[in-house]
Design brief:
heterodimer, A: alpha/beta, 7-stranded mixed sheet, globular, B: 4-stranded antiparallel sheet, 16 strands
């Protein structure tokens, strides 16, 4: 019996705490039937109403009974906590939010870019904060930039932590401020996903811009994940060290979304609860799963049922872990031995209580050399993500040959374009200068002699030399050769089709052999582009016999062991004769050599997984080594492959970092979208390109109309994702016609790009 | 303008329908997908982007074209004899009897009673500031306009052209566009009512709004 409770006011407080614990259990289980929790809640309500009518001793006895029952149920729930329940924990209004972290982890903070609802996007909070540590009874403070999602405490305007494009832009702006001031960034991810609106510059485009900048942000980055919803999480989540709460989840898609896709649930219909739970298990979304997959670096232990707003021991641990994590990121760049000693000590301390004092103070300021190392480590870390989760089908011999080839070509191109070309350029410059000066001098001497000679022996003027520029011969039909080489099999059908714009523009029915043959699948009246298979582009866009595929042995697999996925994957491999949805190859466009990465729709809807990510990164490497331009032609992409979970999600930053590295080394990366391009890839390594073009009739965006309707509750116009609208909001730089694709591409390759291309 | 509003009303009360003929757009073999008296739905959605009920399929050169309803209503006069037959272009298959609602009837009455000023070309239109101010002050009474009055500003390619009203004097009864909207050529811009009929028209419209069943 509690003897210290003498006031009835205490009993009211206890009842209210118990009611909170019970409603938390109801949140976790998703219903009030489990263990008759609903009854317990009703009993508490009854006690509250008759608080002053019951004897104090009876009341406390009853409270004790209920508390014992609640504790028992809590233990039971904690014992068998499934992924779906963890999702419920994360979504519970009682879970801690960013404001709690700012108040309890940091000493002080100043919110930047608005407060509360007076904010450009209240879903994203940015604050300049101070975090301190005690070393030998002396207090040391660090300044950090805290950026994160704020789900709110029931505030509608927070939008549940779903950042709008301008919210992510705000985050980006303050990342740059942190960079200017040289202070580390702590990111806190509490988002179910980005808000899928295409207002300027579009959700996908903004995330891609964030990733592109974060790839080379010159300050230490540390992130903590509580609710990591795919692209929205990545928008602020690139970091040197990724921590995750033990009761958080990090996923490619919400379990409900995955269930709707897997179960082919129609819009508006309810997704069965069992299917959602099944998908939550399959997606491997928990902290343990993610640690195993290597998509996070460390787990921060929470209480068995997750940390809540008043969980002060957890905040103490979080503060300690954030400090240690930032130390580690900084130390790696300073001295490897010091880092190793630090890491070893850290490992010894694993599982122990949070110490009061730190052993030493580590300054978070970095020199230029250390910043270089920081970026190198970040690049290296992301390049390793997802490795080992695709099949390479290689043996020691072929691997050896491959490595030798890479080494040889790297040496050759380094020598040719890295060493000899600058030298030859300098020599050429000197010769030009000398010859022009010499010719001026010579002219002065020879001019009177030549004038006299010309006067005595007058000659007919010779025509000037015609300089042929590289590129297509304008007099030739660009279709003539291609017609002979490849015609789409779609043209073999003897029938007509109707242009979708027939009612609007009065287009006549088109005879299929004409349409897919002579007209390149384009309506001659309105210019509507009918979809064509990717092989058409392979044959018609590039010079004959110039396409040489590489890394085709990299094969997609089922890294999460997603049930029923193996059979589907095998079927696609057999049907398409390819091992992944990405084809990487060397090719030529009117003699101009380039590297191409192509995503095509026939293989798992053109989705991106670890194999595709790795192929893309390697294509960037090849393009960088050979000083060739890199083209990403997107025949179609449906986003990140949900069956690969977060392994797919991390391909977003991984590929973006590779692209950034390639661009910074003076390359040219062009993206051309065709058909449908949505979600993760567009929000990362495609959307980050400085030069993006869309084919007519292509659709580009972050989420499809159904997801937008289900998330925002509003319908979108039919042309919401059209290329024209993508151009209007500045996502793409131009719209290309399929019939002029080759010419436009050649022009772009000749006119755009950095100075390090082999032909410049 | 010699229109008897009572006659008009009586006509719509006795026959509140509009019959839309459904004809084949071109030659082909027709397969009907509706039955006599079936209720069909027209275009739906905020942008009228959702197709209506499938009415029939017409096949020509192995091109199977699905024709959907543009209007809501009831199928009438269906010609079952042409089911599966080859037909010429413009062949009447059936009609969709569309029941007019209050607003549609009001619109129809107004187009007959009012003098409609159409858009001379595709451009953005604004009400003249004077008219706009008067309308804000007395929205219900209508603003009287006379021949030669500047009523609209047409804005095209950053050039503004003032449009003057030409016609019998009257009251500005209806504005068919939102200021600053892009209006297609020929679409109605303003509806002007003869002053003597203004009160009467208002009364009739009020009656339709209150008394009409749907």
């Amino acid at each position: 019996m509690r003897t210290d409770r003498v006031h009835m006011a205490d009993s009211g407080k206890l009842l209210s705490q118990l009611a909170d614990r019970i409603s938390y259990l109801i949140d976790i289980k998703g219903n009030s039937e489990y263990g008759n929790i609903g009854d317990l809640l009703r009993q508490i309500q009854g006690l509250r109403q008759s608080l002053f009518e019951i004897k104090e001793a009876d009341l406390f006895e009853e409270i004790d009974r209920i508390e014992d029952r609640v504790s028992f149920l809590e233990d039971r729930v904690a014992e068998k906590l499934g992924p779906a329940e963890i999702v419920n924990i994360v979504r519970s209004p009682q879970r801690f939010t960013l404001i709690d972290i700012l108040e309890n982890v940091y000493d002080s903070y100043t919110e930047l870019g608005g407060e509360g609802d007076c904010n450009i996007d209240p879903a994203i909070m940015v604050a300049r904060a101070t975090i301190s540590r005690r070393v030998k009874n002396k207090l040391y403070s660090h300044q950090v930039m805290v950026i994160g999602h704020e789900k709110g405490r029931g505030e509608e305007y927070r939008n549940g932590g779903c950042a709008r494009p301008w919210g992510n832009d705000k985050a980006l702006r303050y990342m740059r401020v942190a960079e200017t001031e040289g202070i580390p960034i702590h990111s806190y991810i509490f988002t179910p996903g980005s808000y899928p609106v295409e207002d300027y510059p579009g959700a996908a485009q903004q995330i891609a811009r964030n990733l592109y900048v974060m790839a080379k942000l010159k300050v230490p980055l540390v992130s903590f994940i509580s609710e990591g919803g795919s692209g929205g999480a990545e928008a602020i989540g690139v970091s040197g060290l990724r921590l995750m709460g033990s009761r958080g989840y990090y996923s490619v898609i919400s379990p409900e979304g995955a269930a709707a896709i897997e179960g082919k649930i129609r819009e508006g219909e309810k997704v069965p609860r069992e299917l959602v739970e099944h998908c939550a298990v399959q997606l491997k979304i928990t902290a343990e799963n993610n640690l195993k997959l290597g998509t996070i670096d460390r787990i921060i232990e929470e209480p068995p049922l997750g940390a809540r707003r008043d969980d002060f021991p957890f905040f103490r641990r979080l503060r300690y872990e954030m400090l240690r994590a930032t130390d580690e990121v900084v130390l790696k760049t300073k001295n490897f031995r010091a880092f190793r000693a630090y890491a070893l000590k850290r490992r010894e301390e694993e599982g122990k209580d949070v110490p009061e004092d730190f052993d030493l103070f580590i300054s978070w300021n970095l020199t230029d050399l250390e910043i270089e190392r920081l970026l190198e480590f970040r690049l290296k870390k992301y390049m390793e993500l997802g490795k080992g989760y695709f099949l390479e089908n290689k043996n020691v011999l072929t691997d050896g040959i491959r490595k030798t080839k890479i080494f040889a070509s790297k040496t050759y191109y380094d020598l040719r374009y890295g060493l000899l070309r600058p030298h030859s350029r300098n020599v050429q410059k000197v010769i030009e200068e000398v010859s022009s000066e010499g010719s001026v001098f010579l002219r002065k001497v020879t001019e009177p002699v030549r004038a006299a000679y010309d006067f005595v022996f007058p000659q007919m003027e010779r025509p000037g030399k015609v300089i042929h520029s590289e590129g297509p011969d304008e007099r030739k039909s660009i279709f003539a050769e291609e017609w002979e080489s490849y015609v789409s099999p779609l043209a073999n059908e003897d029938c007509t089709v109707t242009c979708p714009n027939a009612s609007k523009y009065g287009c006549m029915d088109l005879w299929v052999p004409d349409l897919y043959g002579e007209f390149c699948g384009v309506c001659p009246n309105c210019g509507h582009h009918f979809p064509l298979e990717y092989q058409w582009y392979l044959e018609n866009l590039f010079d004959k016999n110039s396409v040489h595929e590489f890394n085709d042995y990299i094969t997609s697999c089922n890294p999460l062991g997603f049930q029923g996925y193996n059979a589907r994957l095998k079927k696609d491999i057999k049907r398409t004769g390819r091992n992944s949805s990405m084809i990487t190859f060397d090719a030529e466009v009117w003699g101009l050599r380039l590297v191409v990465a192509m995503l095509f729709s026939n293989f798992r809807g053109g989705t991106v997984g670890t194999a595709e990510g790795e192929k893309f990164v390697r294509a960037c490497d090849v393009a960088g080594t050979t000083r060739r331009p890199l083209l990403a032609y997107i025949h179609s992409t449906g986003g990140i492959r949900i069956h690969e979970g977060t392994l797919g999600v991390v391909q977003m930053p991984k590929c973006t970092l590779a692209v950034r590295e390639y661009n910074d080394n003076g390359g040219l990366y062009i993206v051309v979208y065709d058909n449908n391009s949505y979600a993760g890839p567009v929000a990362s390594f495609l959307g980050c390109s400085l030069y993006q073009f869309g084919m007519r009739s292509s659709r580009i965006g972050f989420a499809g109309p159904r997801v937008i309707r289900e998330t925002t509750g509003q319908d979108v116009p039919p042309d919401y994702h059209s290329a024209k609208n993508a151009l209007r909001r500045g996502h793409i730089q131009g719209i290309w016609d399929r019939r002029e694709f080759k010419k436009n591409l050649h022009d772009a390759l000749m006119t755009l790009g950095g100075p390090n291309l082999y032909y410049k | 303008m010699d229109i008897n509003l009572n006659d008009l009303l009586r006509r719509y009360r006795s026959h509140p329908f509009e019959d839309y003929p459904v004809e084949t757009p071109h030659t082909g073999v027709v397969f009907l997908k509706v039955k006599e008296d079936q209720i069909v739905k027209g275009l739906g959605g905020e942008w009228l982007h959702r197709p209506g009920t499938l009415l029939y399929v017409i096949e020509r050169e192995r091109n199977v074209k699905r024709i959907t309803a543009l209007w809501s209503g009831q199928v009438s006069g269906i010609r079952l004899d042409i089911e599966g037959q080859f037909v010429e272009a413009g062949e009447l298959l059936f009609s969709i009897r569309h029941q007019l609602d209050k607003e549609e009837i009001i619109d129809r009455i107004l187009t007959q009673v009012l003098y409609i000023l159409p858009a001379p070309q595709r451009a953005r239109y604004f009400l003249a500031p004077e008219i706009s101010a008067k309308l804000e002050q007395k929205p219900k009474e209508g603003v009287s306009v006379e021949s030669g009055d500047e009523v609209l500003i047409m804005s095209l390619m950053k050039r503004d052209t003032v449009i003057s009203y030409e016609g019998a004097p009257g009251a500005l009864y209806k504005v068919y566009f939102k200021s600053g909207d892009m209006v297609e050529q020929g679409s109605p811009l303003l509806g002007i009512c003869p002053p003597d009929k203004l009160r009467y028209v208002q009364k009739v419209i009020q009656r339709i709004r209150t008394e009409w069943e749907n």
